[in-house]
Design goal:
Blueprint (H helix, E strand, L loop, with lengths): L1 H37 L4 H8 L7 H14 L2 H9 L1 H21 L3 H29 L2 H32 L4 H4 L1 H15 L12 H22 L5 H24 L13 H17 L2 H11 L5 H6 L2 H9 L4 H8 L1 H19 L8 H27 L7 H31 L7 H23 L12
Helix pairs in contact: 1-6, 1-7, 1-9, 3-6, 3-10, 4-5, 4-6, 4-19, 5-6, 5-9, 6-19, 7-15, 10-11, 10-19, 12-18, 12-19, 12-20, 13-20, 15-18, 16-17, 17-18, 17-20, 19-20
């Protein structure tokens, strides 16, 4: 009798833990997205305090991005080998330690080293937390769960710039890193009590594959950073592209000869994974540059202040969060195929409308556009992420999840870089356009990219993703 009572108590504890698992992932998502946006507004303050120019501080962002590109492919293998709970706790510990060292940095060299440590932790936090969700929950509950954790990622993005400016202005820039410490400690504590330590059989560590794949990612990331920062040295870019392509070829040859490669390209035979990854990349080529282009256009072309142009992105973020509770019902009613095709076209139409705004366009007009943009983006991201993972099982979840994380990381950079490249092309002497026209044409070109991505989603069948609904 006493044994039965103890067993029931333990079972109840496990059930409660399962319900709390999304909160662990949500904390990881929040802390990573907060860190990704909080630094940008504080870089001038850090540069001034350390005695550098703001442009010299760009290496801090590049170092972080390159380290992410190098270590993301490791996350799935490490989680399966040593357990999701073990590696998640280590990842958060590294992130928190890196944050603490960032706050203690006295020069650019120590700051960059601290950012490397922080990025190693960040490269594993969210992928491993999401992998635990994939292993724990049945497909029928994944859409609702993924929506929940995505909201916290969006909240981090919304809070980051404002919080970074507030802390830098009223306290010191050190607090933008110190704020990660208590949140990270809470995450480690919750993971220890709540997260299951899932393990799966893995082969011998594919070190050669990691070197080929990670270096290819690093070189393509360097190209994106060069384009994004406006330093378009053509020979350097072509050289890096060549090296990235060569290493990709080496990896492909290596993968064909290896039983358990670090990134198993055979997973691309899973139709929904392949469509989801491809569609995500093309869609983000279109919409990924809007947070950069809109404030830039409002300031440089229309004369708005930085604070006003920045605040105009807030309605987008708020509507992005507000639509999340309705996601399950929307997808259940229309299905993934219809939602993704229609929603992608609607996003393209918003970009086309932005291509016709002028200096005389009233501010409320932008607010309405941003509300719709935020809502449609929310639907798009949730639907793309879940359909990509929809046909993965226990054996393919780790590899597929890692592929999705890599694609998301690259596509965000691709989106900003493509937007910057198209804008610089229209601003060059080739087209002889004024600044306003250059922005307008850029929005229209990005709209075409976005609408074309709907063709990719048309390859989905009406029953794809049915297990999620």
């Amino acid at each position: 009798m006493e044994t039965d009572l103890l067993n029931k108590t333990e079972e109840k504890k496990e059930q409660n833990a399962v319900h709390l698992l999304p909160w662990v992932t949500a904390i990881a998502m929040f802390i990573q997205s907060l860190d990704g946006t909080i630094l940008n507004t504080s870089l001038p303050s850090i540069a001034k305090d350390m005695g550098y120019s703001p442009t010299e501080m760009h290496s801090v962002i590049v170092t972080y991005t390159l380290t992410l590109a190098m270590f993301i492919p490791l996350s799935g293998w490490l989680a399966d080998k040593f357990g999701t709970r073990t590696m998640f706790m280590i990842a958060v510990f590294l992130f928190v330690t890196g944050s603490l060292f960032c706050a203690l940095s006295v020069d650019l060299q120590s700051f960059n080293l601290a950012r490397v440590l922080q990025a190693i932790g960040a490269s594993m936090m969210v992928p491993i937390a999401r992998l635990a969700i994939l292993y724990q929950y049945p497909k029928s509950e994944l859409l609702k769960t993924m929506n929940f954790i995505t909201v916290f990622g969006l909240l981090g993005m919304v809070a980051g710039p404002s919080l970074g400016g507030f802390l830098s202005d009223n306290f010191s820039w050190h607090w933008i890193f110190l704020v990660n410490v208590p949140i990270g400690i809470i995450g480690i504590s919750m993971a220890y009590k709540i997260m299951p330590n899932f393990k799966h059989a893995v082969g011998r560590f594919d070190f050669r594959g990691l070197v080929y794949f990670s270096l290819a990612l690093i070189f393509i990331t360097m190209v994106l950073e060069l384009i994004e920062s406006g330093r378009t040295h053509m020979m350097v870019i072509l050289g890096l592209l060549f090296l990235s392509g060569l290493l990709s070829l080496f990896y492909y040859i290596h993968y064909k000869r290896t039983e358990k490669p670090i990134i198993d390209l055979r997973l691309l035979n899973i139709r929904t994974l392949k469509i989801g990854l491809k569609g995500s990349l093309i869609t983000r080529l279109g919409i990924g540059g809007l947070p950069l282009l809109l404030p830039l256009m409002l300031q440089t072309s229309f004369g708005y202040s930085a604070s006003v142009s920045g605040l105009l992105l807030l309605p987008s973020a708020l509507s992005n969060v507000a639509v999340k509770p309705f996601m399950v019902r929307i997808i259940k009613f229309f299905g993934y195929r219809t939602v993704l095709i229609t929603n992608t076209i609607l996003l393209g139409i918003i970009l086309i409308v932005l291509g016709f705004v002028t200096k005389e366009t009233p501010l409320p007009y932008y607010i309405v556009l941003m509300i719709f943009y935020g809502a449609f983006t929310s639907i798009q991201m949730s639907a793309m992420n879940t359909i990509t993972l929809s046909d993965l099982d226990q054996d393919t979840a780790s590899g597929g999840n890692t592929m999705l994380v890599i694609m998301q990381q690259l596509s965000v950079s691709f989106g900003v870089s493509v937007a910057s490249l198209v804008l610089s092309l229209f601003q060059s002497g080739i087209f002889e356009l004024n600044t306003t026209k250059a922005f307008q044409y850029t929005f229209i070109v990005l709209a075409v990219f976005t609408i074309l991505s709907s063709i990719t989603f048309s390859r989905l069948s009406k029953m794809d993703g049915a297990g999620y609904m």
